[in-house]
Amino acid sequence: MKKKLTIPDIYQIKKKGEKAALLTAYDYPTALIEDEAGIDIILVGDSLAMTVLGYKNTLSVTLDEMLVFTKAVTRAVERAFVVGDMPFLTYKTDPYTAIENAGRFIQEANADAVKLEGAGDIIPNIKAIVGAGIPVMGHIGLTPQSIGILGGFRVQGTKKEAALKLIDDAKRLEDAGVFAIIAESIPSELTPIIRDKLKIPLYGIGAGPETDGQILVVHDILGLFEDFIPRFVKKYADLNKILKDAFKTYIQDIKDGKFPDAEKSYHIDKKVLDEIKKVLLQQEKQNK
Fold first, then answer.
1. What was the pLDDT predicted at 155?
2. Is 184 an active-site residue?
């Protein structure tokens, strides 16, 4: 049994000057492999709305759907710290409802923490959730649940006012009690400025190399989602091609009669088979 990572362990990774490796996962087999490979933090991201469920954006996925996938991941994981992504309209509510929704990730899905997007008017709810004993990860920069306001998937913080707001948001999130922050799609030059203002870890996705760790979407790095490929994505395998080739070979084997062969089939003793045939033959004679 591997030792389960905790928030103090996550802080130790930063204190040692090491980089944390984060990755999304949405199902049992993927989470199992990621955990065995040594991923430190697994995010059950609402990105599954697009990569798994086929929605056009992340706004359509529900809390109940997120809990199903989070449960699958936590059943697989022994070591990694698992964060559940709170979906659209589940935390921009009254504090009690926000706590109740966050609590379902911990109580029902066995997650270690939840992630919320943004700062601003949700700071009181973050404080309330943390105050209820639920660890919270923050998220600044490009926040996909706000694409309607942001005007799409665009780099954030390129202007002075916007950059200063990101720095302020990060500090406000830390003051509210989040244990770590993800910065998404911001200029790489801005990232170390934000990081150095914080005591907690700052992880990046499209935020350059000067972070306390990196996170990407698992379907992106494996080439399984090609509808939208951000500039910051690095593909580590092309499973799209591998799977498609495998499916085509499977189809052809069936059509050619190559599958299943004798090795992939179950068999019966010849004497037993002969007896069965004999009984059937006798039945046919009696019915004539």
1. 86
2. yes
